[in-house]
């Protein structure tokens, strides 16, 4: 009798949940794709059959449609409706939607993580201090890329096989960034570099937790994954402590130099110096240094991880195409002889074949959907006539735009490494169709540095090594729902000479 009662309660609960969570679509909204499984809706296909499912939905319902996943309605945008988001950034909130998946605002407790004001500050910092100082920083990048390659790859007289090469590339890419961010003295400590290198990877598991509890309430997933943080657990804490311990003596030394030299003090060319020059900087106050270190972590999270991801994808794309490697080697050798091994920004710009290859690799990043936002205003009407209500979650069908035959030709699905050669279309250029770095006035300001570092990494690697996949094939990326990760297959390194 008790078992029957529990079963009945369960059935009533499911029915109530279904009634409460059943999507309601207004007459002017994008069409809701029909589904047959109550409550779950399209969740299964969204996770396990994303590419085919979203493509079929678009073919049947047009460029703008809604699906029901994890207990809420989400609108998928492509083509013209997608670009409407970039043209009207004040109507859409990327920060809140991102924090719901990866709660940086709970992890970076001293600066609020990625609140809107914080995002503006980081964008300005990136634009002025990172991408804006390519001429100054290029020597540092070159020096520490070579050191990183020596450490992580080394001598390959005998063929060396590296699996999960993203970890290796992440370590190589992190080394120059650490030196640009905190200066060579602080970055000489391996534990500091390791913290900046591993920060994003340590937070990655939080990003991968599926929001199952969102079936009950949209905010419940965020509440549960951040609950341990309310009791003191924070994967950022040990990295923060390491970095503070290493930069504090550097700050003290620089302040002494300032007092002694006065106007003759020569500022250091790194991000730490920039933070020290902020009006609110006072490392002696209890929360001040942690605040600026958390600022540094935001910059680290969006620079090391994304640049190493692009470089790792490009490395796999290169390793699977031996004929391409030979052609890029000829270009690299010519430029290396002209600059005598010491690259300038002008030399990196000459790498036109490599630039086209990197851009094509980025175009084939294979993320099916990306850049989730919330609708901020009461409603928004797209240029195609559809209207979505305030509070609606939207996500961009980026793969559809990046593989569009309208913009990239009949072979848009194919990987053509020199597709952009002689087209005045560098990898850093953002336009209507090439949305790897977003679009509009909020396009990624760090893309210039990311592309230059990626090209320099590949340039030095091509000069030094022959690379190939262990399988001898072009390796596919790993797909986790609508998102992709670099392959974990083996790459073979051999000394070129």
Automatic annotation (TrEMBL):
Compartments it resides in: Membrane
One function term, GO molecular function aspect: monooxygenase activity
Broad class of where this protein is predominantly found: membrane
Assigned protein family: Belongs to the cytochrome P450 family.
GO cellular component, one term: membrane
Keywords associated with the record: Heme, Iron, Membrane, Metal-binding, Monooxygenase, Oxidoreductase, Transmembrane, Transmembrane helix
Organism the protein comes from: Rhizophagus clarus
InterPro entries linked: Cyt_P450, Cyt_P450_CS, Cyt_P450_E_grp-IV, Cyt_P450_sf
Domain of life: Eukaryota
Cofactor: heme
UniProt xrefs under Pfam families: p450
Presence of the UniProt keyword Oxidoreductase in the record: yes
Protein name: Cytochrome P450
Positions with a binding annotation for heme: 444
């Amino acid at each position: 009798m008790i078992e029957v009662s529990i079963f009945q309660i369960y059935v009533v609960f499911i029915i109530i949940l279904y009634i409460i969570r059943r999507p309601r679509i207004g007459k002017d909204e994008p069409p809701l794709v029909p589904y047959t499984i109550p409550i779950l809706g399209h969740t299964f296909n969204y996770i396990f059959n994303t590419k085919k499912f979203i493509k079929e939905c678009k073919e049947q319902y047009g460029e703008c449609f809604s699906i029901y996943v994890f207990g809420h309605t989400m609108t998928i945008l492509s083509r013209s409706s997608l670009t409407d988001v970039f043209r009207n950034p004040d109507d859409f909130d990327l920060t809140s939607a991102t924090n719901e998946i990866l709660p940086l605002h709970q992890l970076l407790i001293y600066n609020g993580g990625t609140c809107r004001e914080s995002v503006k500050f980081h964008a300005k910092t990136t634009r002025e201090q990172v991408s804006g100082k390519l001429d100054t920083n290029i020597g540092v990048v070159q020096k520490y890329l070579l050191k990183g390659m020596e450490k992580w790859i080394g001598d390959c007289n005998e063929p060396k096989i590296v699996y999960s090469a993203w970890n290796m590339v992440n370590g190589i890419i992190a080394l120059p960034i650490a030196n640009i961010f905190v200066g060579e003295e602080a970055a000489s400590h391996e534990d500091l570099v390791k913290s900046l290198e591993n920060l994003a990877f340590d937070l990655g598991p939080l990003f991968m937790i599926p929001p199952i509890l969102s079936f009950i309430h949209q905010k419940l997933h965020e509440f549960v994954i951040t609950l341990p943080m309310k009791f003191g657990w924070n994967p950022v804490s040990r990295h923060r402590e390491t970095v503070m311990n290493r930069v504090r003596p550097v700050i003290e030394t620089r302040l002494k130099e300032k007092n002694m030299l006065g106007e003759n003090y020569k500022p250091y060319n790194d991000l730490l110096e920039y933070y020290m020059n902020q009006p609110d900087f006072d490392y002696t106050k209890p929360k001040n240094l942690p605040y600026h270190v958390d600022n540094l972590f935001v910059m680290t999270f969006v620079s090391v991880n994304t640049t190493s991801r692009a470089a790792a994808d490009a490395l796999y794309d290169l390793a699977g195409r031996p004929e391409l490697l030979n052609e890029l080697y000829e270009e690299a050798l010519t430029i290396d002889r002209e600059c005598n091994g010491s690259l300038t920004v002008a030399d990196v710009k000459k790498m036109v074949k490599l630039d086209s290859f990197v851009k094509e690799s980025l175009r084939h990043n294979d993320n099916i959907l990306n850049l989730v936002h919330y609708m901020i205003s009461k409603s928004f009407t797209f240029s195609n006539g559809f209207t979505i209500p305030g509070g609606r979650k939207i996500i961009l069908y980026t793969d559809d735009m990046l593989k569009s035959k309208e913009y990239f030709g009949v072979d848009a699905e194919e990987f053509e490494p020199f597709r952009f050669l002689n087209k005045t279309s560098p990898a850093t250029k953002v336009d209507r169709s090439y949305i790897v770095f977003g679009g509009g006035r909020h396009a990624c300001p760090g893309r210039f540095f990311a592309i230059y570092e990626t090209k320099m990494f590949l340039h030095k690697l091509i000069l030094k090594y022959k690379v190939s996949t262990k399988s001898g094939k072009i390796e596919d990326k790993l797909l986790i729902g609508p998102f992709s990760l670099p392959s974990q297959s083996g790459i073979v390194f051999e000394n070129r000479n």
